[in-house]
Design brief:
Elements: E1 4-9, E2 30-36, E3 39-43, H1 49-56, E4 63-67, E5 91-96, H2 104-111, E6 127-132, E7 137-139, E8 142-148, E9 156-161, E10 166-170, H3 178-187, E11 193-197, H4 202-207, H5 217-227, E12 231-235, H6 243-256, E13 260-262, E14 268-270
Parallel strand pairs: 3-4, 4-5, 5-6, 10-11, 11-12, 12-13
Antiparallel strand pairs: 1-2, 1-14, 2-3, 7-8, 8-9, 9-10
Bound molecules: zinc ion (ZN).
């Protein structure tokens, strides 16, 4: 059965608001697929997670399988306020990469606790479990594979295979590490859609943003071409770049790879 991936947040680094951000949106990274009725696959818990909570409000408790690509604030900031955590009957299973000998539960537990937050993960009502990210993880009818990207403190790149379509998510990946770039091209090989970090212009990346953990649209296009994907979707928009600026990046990317779009809040992609 076909599914739909919904973009719930595609802003990089920090939430923004105002007239300049109306079309692409200001919430930080969150993607979601309802893999079976009442069971949601969530990729990253940026502030975009809030719109999922609003849709689930008032209904029966749900099940969430959450995969975190990494633990920078902009990818977990929606989590402490996610009401499902405080709802008995809801189930949440978290997968994420280890860091410095610690697993996903220990890492989140160190951030969601006083004085940074009034409650700890031991005090919440949901049925919560934590797992290491495994190879070829089945989530409902979706199979999730991963590879290691290039980002400060690390990041995982994800490939979601549905029954007849595939989507690769490469947020917060900085092009330029030959081995990581090769892993991404292999992971994305012949995917229907590649959602790729494109926070910068090539000039920005070359001059003042190298090593910051993000790519230019030019690098995203190169991966799309080398992996022969069907469509490229630019994401992790710079908080300083308004709608018109994102339009311009998209236009420049389209000149090299015509099947290019820029992610926006509410965008849906068949899976
Ligand atoms: Zn990051």
């Amino acid at each position: 059965m076909s599914r739909t991936l919904r973009v719930r947040g595609c802003r990089g680094s920090m939430t923004v608001t105002g007239d300049a951000y109306r079309r692409y949106g200001g919430d930080t990274t969150c993607f979601e697929v309802e893999v079976e009725p009442g069971h949601h696959l969530v990729i990253d818990c940026g502030t975009g997670l809030r719109s999922l909570q609003q849709e689930a409000a008032g209904g029966p408790p749900r099940r969430y399988t959450v995969i975190l690509t990494h633990y920078h604030w902009d990818h977990i900031q929606g989590l402490p306020v996610f009401l499902a955590l405080f709802e008995s009957g809801s189930q949440m299973t978290f997968y994420g990469p280890g860091f410095d000998g610690r697993g996903v539960g220990e890492i989140l537990g160190a951030a969601i606790r006083p004085p940074w937050w009034p409650v700890t993960l031991d005090e919440i009502d949901a049925d919560v479990s934590f797992r290491d990210l495994e190879d070829a993880l089945s989530v409902g009818s979706i199979v999730v594979r991963h590879a290691e990207g290039n980002h400060p403190q690390g990041v995982v790149l994800l490939r979601l295979d549905g029954s007849d379509r595939s989507i690769v998510i490469a947020t917060d990946h900085e092009a330029g590490d030959a081995q990581a770039d090769a892993r991404l091209v292999q992971l994305a090989s012949a995917a229907d859609v590649l959602i790729h970090d494109a926070q910068y212009t090539p000039e920005e990346h070359r001059t003042t943003r190298r090593g910051w953990g993000h790519s230019s649209y030019e690098s995203a296009v190169r991966v799309a071409q080398e992996a022969a994907v069907g469509r490229l979707v630019l994401t992790s928009h710079d908080p300083g770049r308004g709608d018109e600026g994102v339009d311009q990046l998209r236009s420049m990317a389209r000149a090299a790879f015509p099947q290019t779009d820029a992610a926006y809040e509410g965008m849906t992609i068949p899976l």
